[in-house]
Amino acid sequence: MSIAEKQYSCPYTLAVIPLATMSKRKLVVWGYTCERCGYQWIQRTAGAPEPKVCANRKCKSPYWNKPRQHPAPAKKRDQRRR
Ligand SMILES: [Zn+2]
After folding, report:
1. pTM of the predicted protein model
2. What residues have their beta carbon closer than 5 A to ion ligand 1?
3. Which of 4, 8, 14, 46 has the least C-beta neighbours within 10 A?
4. How confident is the model at residue 53 (pLDDT cuts 50, 70, 90)?
5. How is 32-58 classified by DSSP, letter by letter?
């Protein structure tokens, strides 16, 4: 076991090397939207778990990924679609 092998076993190191070669590379990031305040943010850390709270400082809601549980009003809709 050499030191070099230990470095290449790190996924973060592997992700940095392609950028150093200046090659064109598509990076996939996760975008999140808070269901409570509508705040949108991007999780840049690859492989990171989902945020526990909203990234909005004024919100910080732990239910950012859960839609509001509002009672649906009984609206009369036209059932005939044909
Ligand atoms: Zn929020």
Report:
1. 0.50
2. 34, 36-37, 39, 54, 56, 59, 61, 64
3. 4
4. very high
5. EE-TTT--EEEE-STTPPPPSS-S-TT
